[in-house]
Amino acid sequence: MITRHHLALALMCALILGSAFFLSNPLMMVLVIAGTCIGVLLPDIHMTRPNHLTFRTLAWLIVQFPRRVCASLMCRIYAHTHHPVPDPSDKRLTHSIPGVLFIGACMGTLLYIPAYVTGSVLTLPAGILMSGVLLGMGLHLAEDLCTRKGIFPFFPFSPWTVAGSIRPCDRTDPRIARYHFQHCTVLLVFFGLESLGILAHALFLPISIAGVGICLGMMVYFSEVSIRQNPGLEGDVNVPSPAKST
């Protein structure tokens, strides 16, 4: 999906999950939201630099960390395996489970070293922010697997991809707008329950997790997601198909 869709959907998911803490711990809410907005941008290392100074310029600056540091390190690691990746700007590197886990490890190191050096005061905020980052990266993969290019769960160790049928730039396809609407509806319901005091506070977190799960599940279902052989990206070397049984 394109950047604005990623941010909008991930932001609403973070607000749904953080609705239980909106009034009781606003600082926690802010940290989770900030981490989620950062994390949902990190896998897009293939993002091109905008020609003019816009909001996408900030997003482009954020992805320079995984692009210049994490992707390069992953390529060096993979070079010592039977699955080398010569191009550090290959989006499949970070649209995979090993990729987001590696970025998470790098981000965790970047956050926890200063927190450890300065004392225990910053340890908890750093942990909450890091939770948001991991949530954002997970949401990025969940959103991208609904698109036609999909994600590459075990790249470079597997030639298979998980993909749907959505073209994010196709304005005639109403499904992305529908996903925004359903996320927003669930969010408003939770804020309404919070403000009216209808639901017990202890139930907010499990029910909000269920709400996000339902939103993502409906996205996957209506996007016709399936597991298929990697169709390849522009400039890729074709991966030979496994022999069919006769």
Describe the structure.
There is one protein chain. This protein is mostly helical. The chain has one domain (3-229). It is globular and about 55 Å long. It contains eight helices and two strands. It has helices spanning 3-18, 26-39, 55-62, 64-78, 97-118, 123-144, 175-196, 201-222; strands at residues 160-163, 226-229.
How are the strands ordered across the major sheet?
A: 1-2
Query: How many beta-strand runs?
Result: 2
Q: What is the number of independent domains?
A: 1
Mean pLDDT: 86
Counting copies of identical and different chains, the oligomeric state is single chain
Describe the secondary structure blueprint for this structure.
Blueprint: H1 3-18, H2 26-39, H3 55-62, H4 64-78, H5 97-118, H6 123-144, E1 160-163, H7 175-196, H8 201-222, E2 226-229
Antiparallel strand pairs: 1-2
